[in-house]
Amino acid sequence: MGLKEWIVPQERHFFDLLEEDAKAVAEGARALLDLLRDFRDVPGKQKHIKDIEHRGDEAVHTIFEELNKTFITPIDREDIMALASDLDNVLDMIDAAANRLRLYEIEEPSPAMVDLAEVIVEATSALEKAVGMIQDMKQADKVEAICVEVNRLENVADDLMNTSVAALFKEKDVIHIIKHKEIIERLEEATDYCEDVANVLSDIVAKNQ
Amino acid sequence: MGLKEWIVPQERHFFDLLEEDAKAVAEGARALLDLLRDFRDVPGKQKHIKDIEHRGDEAVHTIFEELNKTFITPIDREDIMALASDLDNVLDMIDAAANRLRLYEIEEPSPAMVDLAEVIVEATSALEKAVGMIQDMKQADKVEAICVEVNRLENVADDLMNTSVAALFKEKDVIHIIKHKEIIERLEEATDYCEDVANVLSDIVAKNQ
Amino acid sequence: MGLKEWIVPQERHFFDLLEEDAKAVAEGARALLDLLRDFRDVPGKQKHIKDIEHRGDEAVHTIFEELNKTFITPIDREDIMALASDLDNVLDMIDAAANRLRLYEIEEPSPAMVDLAEVIVEATSALEKAVGMIQDMKQADKVEAICVEVNRLENVADDLMNTSVAALFKEKDVIHIIKHKEIIERLEEATDYCEDVANVLSDIVAKNQ
């Protein structure tokens, strides 16, 4: 048992809280992909995503509350805060996209939306794994590999957005263009925030190994 | 007189500076509501809001300057910086909305804009009160209650935006849609920043009680 | 030789890394202005800007990596991080604007775009100079003067955007409006981030003189 474990055993539940949070984000991503692939019962599925988003909010709230009561944290306080709020941003974007699919009365999601949601599922599942690994610095290389992969996925999402928005402008119905463009941009933004999470994780392992 | 007061009497004016800043924000919100409710002399009223925004900028500038000259602060330096810049963001959004009302030659504000401005007035007045309370930690519960209320108001604004943008898409004039959508989104963003201010206040009282 | 130089000679290369980063940003701005002024070989010129952006990304990455391996930094760690990521934001916006010029198949840039790019060139060249001055605090006044100038340039860009977007709304072709509005807003956002860089520089010299 290392010195760190001996001093702060009770603080290690920050890792559990962060894992719970990352799990909610990955679940939200899967629910969004399910909505886009099988576009039926949109209000019901959107409500389900909203519920997951509320769970994520509570996880973040708990993390901040615990931080305020805790003097010694297993990793830097700022890194825990950054991880929690970046994960929250990912889930917010997932929720914002789902919300607009219903509110804007989108008749059918475009293939680009499904593709983007698949990228978000891949990125958030990878991040869930990585968040589960940071309490054991022997896995630093695996965390780093996931961060590289999430950065690659963000580039994929960026290309998907660029190509699909350019194609969208060829259409006639301007209202359709505006609605679809906004949803596609929110989906891409979700992967930007995934990259932010990856950058924090990468920093954490760099500092602690 | 507590130990803290004895050590740093001269630093307590940070509370005054923050209060002044919060007061300018609440004043800007009231000026915006006045503009939207009585949509006459738009250039004059917009100029008035711009002046208030400049006053807010100066308050923030003074706070940062003072922080650079001060070693001991009554609450965490980072929290003072976060409060000042989040308050600034609220006022920037108020100013951005007012500016676009004039520049986009909006003929008549929509009821949703008035509703949103009312929410912003409520939120910023509550925040002004809360900022005035943080120098006395015995009022922590009242501050916390205001923060909960501001979070509720942000949800109200979010619903107002969603419903009104969805309704906007039913209209024929696309230019009208684009202009109104942007102004409504800026108004909603103002309440997002109010929530940021509330979250910092909530953290401050949690840490210091 | 001052005490500071004696203690941390090997850490002074942070200044070199930041200078390299600021140089890439200014180069990206000049490449964007060249593209807008002489709108030929758009894909080739856009690719050139993307390459500069990659170089900027690598500079930021190196700075963060070095920070993780370094205990003593010549100026506050947070300030180095803020400078690097704000400079990165400027370059991202330059790249985003160039990218959209190609993807949206813009036929001819508007005069407002050229004007905005000129402002970005001025601001980023000034920032490159200022970043080169912060290792010598005797030049604090010159740095401060540049920061005031960059703040002025941000206001100029804001006015340019407001006037040109308002004029854009007079046009008939909505698709044209949407595309041009977005590019103009990205260009203006680049100057917002220049202001962020200037604010950090201003803070650094205020704290260290």
In short:
Three copies of one chain form a homotrimer. The first copy, chain A, is mostly helical.
Describe the structure.
- 3 copies of one chain form a homotrimer.
- Chain A is built from 7 helices and no strands.
- With 209 residues, the first copy, chain A, is mainly alpha-helical.
- The first copy, chain A, has a single domain (10-208), classed as Methane Monooxygenase Hydroxylase, Chain G, domain 1 (Up-down Bundle).
- Chain A is globular and about 60 Å long.
- Chain A starts with a helix and ends with a helix.
- The relative contact order of chain A is 0.15.
- Chains A and C meet through helix 6 and helix 7 of A and helix 3 and helix 7 of C.
The appropriate CATH architecture of chain A is Up-down Bundle
Multimerization status: homotrimer
Order of helices and strands of chain A: HHHHHHH
Q: Which regions of chain A are unreliable across 5 or more consecutive residues at pLDDT < 50?
A: 1-7
Number of helical runs of chain A? 7
CATH C-level class of chain A? Mainly Alpha
Helix content of chain A: over 70%
Assigned CATH superfamily of chain A: Phosphate transport system protein phou homolog 2, domain 2
Helix/sheet category of chain A: mainly alpha
Q: Quick one: overall form of chain A? A: globular
What pair of chains forms the biggest interface? A-C, 12 and 12 residues
Count of folded domains of chain A: 1
Radius of gyration of chain A: 18 Å
CATH topology descriptor of chain A: Methane Monooxygenase Hydroxylase, Chain G, domain 1
Summarize model confidence as the mean pLDDT of chain A: 92
Strand content of chain A: under 5%
Major beta sheet summary of chain A: none
